[in-house]
Amino acid sequence: MENEFRQTSEHPVCAEHTDLRRIRTNPDFWYPVAWSRELRREKAIDVRFAGRHIVVVRPKSGEPYALDGLCPHRQVLLGKGDVHGDAISCIAHGLRYDRDGQCVSSDVSAEAQCLHLTTWACREKGGLIFVFMGEQSLADKIPLPDFPRVKDRRYRTRRFGQVVNCHYSFMHENLMDMNHQVLHSRLVGKMKPRFLGMDHGDGFVEARYTFVRTGGKQPLSEALIYGQRRRDGRDFAYRDVMTIRTQYPYQTLRIETQGIEEPVMELWISYVPQDRDELTNRVFGLLSIKRLKVPFLLDLAWPILVAFTERVFFEDREIVELEQAAWKDLGGDHNQEVFPVINQLRDLLRRCGQRPDGVGKAAS
Amino acid sequence: MENEFRQTSEHPVCAEHTDLRRIRTNPDFWYPVAWSRELRREKAIDVRFAGRHIVVVRPKSGEPYALDGLCPHRQVLLGKGDVHGDAISCIAHGLRYDRDGQCVSSDVSAEAQCLHLTTWACREKGGLIFVFMGEQSLADKIPLPDFPRVKDRRYRTRRFGQVVNCHYSFMHENLMDMNHQVLHSRLVGKMKPRFLGMDHGDGFVEARYTFVRTGGKQPLSEALIYGQRRRDGRDFAYRDVMTIRTQYPYQTLRIETQGIEEPVMELWISYVPQDRDELTNRVFGLLSIKRLKVPFLLDLAWPILVAFTERVFFEDREIVELEQAAWKDLGGDHNQEVFPVINQLRDLLRRCGQRPDGVGKAAS
Amino acid sequence: MENEFRQTSEHPVCAEHTDLRRIRTNPDFWYPVAWSRELRREKAIDVRFAGRHIVVVRPKSGEPYALDGLCPHRQVLLGKGDVHGDAISCIAHGLRYDRDGQCVSSDVSAEAQCLHLTTWACREKGGLIFVFMGEQSLADKIPLPDFPRVKDRRYRTRRFGQVVNCHYSFMHENLMDMNHQVLHSRLVGKMKPRFLGMDHGDGFVEARYTFVRTGGKQPLSEALIYGQRRRDGRDFAYRDVMTIRTQYPYQTLRIETQGIEEPVMELWISYVPQDRDELTNRVFGLLSIKRLKVPFLLDLAWPILVAFTERVFFEDREIVELEQAAWKDLGGDHNQEVFPVINQLRDLLRRCGQRPDGVGKAAS
């Protein structure tokens, strides 16, 4: 018997597909790279996209801008530099660059005027700073994502996120796969999901679920979202519908209650690759919850909700990082998916992303 | 002069041999993977063998069993899961597997019944849980190792072990090579080993030594093992015989005193590869010491003995880890052995183990 | 658009040059490997040169000597061993080696007399222990470096250094490039360098600068070096000349004040590669400062000077380590040098060092 587990795996990875965990993020979309509150006036911040350093600068006046994050002179991180007026200066020699990426420090050295930095389209919306890392001529044609609840006073929005050590595809799968409620049973009690159906098209996959409580008490945080404490699970089983949608490259989750026009909860989330191999991602999430009839009740209960969502997020993170670790250990993807909607989602991510060799679209 | 130290080494590795540190453990034997006390009733534990995750489950009733350690659905570690009755369930989606490795969660998804886990033969003996990772049809024909002193009331047994960062071959060599007493001179005083002879055959190498004290005081812990405090080294020099035997893949060390029929000490030890490259191993050791004539004296003195053996183990571990580090640094084995018995042992380990390419036995 | 940043870089590395950060240190020079104070009588120390372990031994009497740092028997670090008289003994089996590298432990095993260690030329000077790692027949012909101020009572010398995580070439560039004063502006105020000229020849490049203060107060530590507090920058602008010279493989920095014959400050510095890839180096620096007219004033102020130089060193280290990190990240050197003297220095380091393949001189 051989110890070469990789070759003798009982479930070889299908040869005709590129391994999903090697599919790269399609850069022809707007991606969040920082929260607005992270970048003060006349400051700069270093962010990463798929291994590339980007410096985002908020000048003394006007909109933020984004440049390549390494000084072309000696490759020192520009995010460490100072902002004076409109220009960012490198910490090492003080070489200054304007928002067009042009070095404007001919006083330091005549040769410095040859130095130039790549510029990247940059926008700010809803408390997030976005960059466009793809073909720059497309930037104006591709719309920024929309999250109407963020500005709606009838909702309160929580901004959350952190770096998770896995490929972004695990994140999409995890959120869309509501069959993993067992994972959160200590937090939410026993919930049985019922799959209501799915929908898919050119750039999206959508799954709809409802739930029935089969045991355990409804947690307070859940009651807060639904606006009422429900005493008997059976009574209103299947009254709520949860819709999860990956509209490439973003993901949303919406909970609607029968008889109420607007969702009681809406989540918008984006996963931004950090390293070159895209095996870590930074999460930017906007979780909007509808305010209750009693004024300020949601605000009072806010800390409970924050703690609840943090714990759910923590449990999910453990799982996706275990999945990623097993992928590395086994040398590839051995997923044997049992939920058809997840296979649809996997096809979507493969189709919309880029093959690792960068030759073309992943599935073309 | 070049800096390419690897190539210009004065002692090139012999080309006709596979590097001993690349020889893999032969899986057609029973290997301990956990202590019985680590695995409670209705619990599961994740263990490793040469890079492979194994989940060992102790069901509600009956013997423990072993399965591949990653859920076939999404490769989540099953050792994190819960045991209900006879079945282990995955933490992520609650998919349950019985002791035959069959998924029994068709309620979660119809496709789940296609999921199946490899099973591994598993036995429990002497406070250890063993698995058989080789050709499964051989499992019943290959006997479990024997350690009769563990159940013998005239002996007390200490169970010890930890993960050591080196290939298992360094462990075998270190124990059989009693010429390294200088290493432990701060603990045991100056002891001069005298090599009495060796024996070797199909699956074993055995070395016999005796010792004479050339300086330093006999430590209390040593006196406890021998059952008496000896005042004059010369007087009883060469009265004790230490026999170290590698009976592949296990190792034993026995101390006999002239005129006493049974050994005063007997050690059984096994080194189980943890990572895929087998450059770390987990030690499982059973050290049986004969009780003294005064009842409970050995029990009273036990903490001293434990501390003594821990310190000897600590010093040995430092050396084998330095040897392993140098092997990595130099890119291969540069051993120039000066003790013939160690060369016999090295041949045995090469012969009985597996070549890294897995094509056949290492020496065939 | 592709994510393959390495290939699509706008500034490809010139193909006809070997990447400067891959050029190896030329071993045909004397390199410091330890401070004399680190090595007491009858002790040994493990040091590294370009990935090779060296043990330096100070015997009971006579000069220190250097041998390969791994015992040929089982490759255990000899630096862990004990020194008895003239010989170093290995911690594991007590095998002893004399200053010629010959094993003198035939009592342990007859085969031990075949064991032999490579010897390396070794000298001690000015509180430093040097080894010669190149062609040994050259050792006597190549002079040790000279640092006359170290023994001159009119100067006080500070010995400093630590391991810095970068290729030694970054260190040379950083010290010679006085245009990076902006980096230290919090420590030294605003200083504008004026380049006075350079000189270069067979094994050296030399740059001369003067400075004028354009803002900020002169720090006390600087006043101590110059021997007076200067109240008006303009008044004596361009009176001091700083000369930085790389005389391969060492570097010096000298500050002279107009009208004073001897330098007010002289620095000698050497960067010794630690790992095989030479991406870390250990700094050995001797900073000699001329004593002031008031006796003991310099000694009183010494702690201030120490703190000042430590902080400058700390800031420099951050930059060179960022440069090294970017080199790894980008997969090569993307430097676009804007200061001609630095390009001269880079050519010198490439010419005097060794190509990574070791076939010949880097630039031949």
From TrEMBL, chains A, B, C:
How would you classify this enzyme at the top EC level? oxidoreductase
Q: Which Pfam families match?
A: Rieske, VanA_C
Enumerate the GO terms in the molecular function aspect.
2 iron, 2 sulfur cluster binding; metal ion binding; oxidoreductase activity
Record PROSITE patterns: RIESKE
InterPro entries on file: Cholesterol_7-desaturase, Rieske_2Fe-2S, Rieske_2Fe-2S_sf, VanA_C_cat
Residue ranges occupied by any Rieske domain in the UniProt entry: 30-131
The Enzyme Commission number assigned here is 1.14.-.-
The UniProt keyword set, sorted, is: 2Fe-2S, Iron, Iron-sulfur, Metal-binding, Oxidoreductase
Where does the source fall among the domains of life? Answer: Bacteria
This protein is called what? Rieske (2Fe-2S) domain protein
For this protein's source organism, the top of the classification is:
Bacteria, Pseudomonadati, Pseudomonadota, Alphaproteobacteria, Acetobacterales
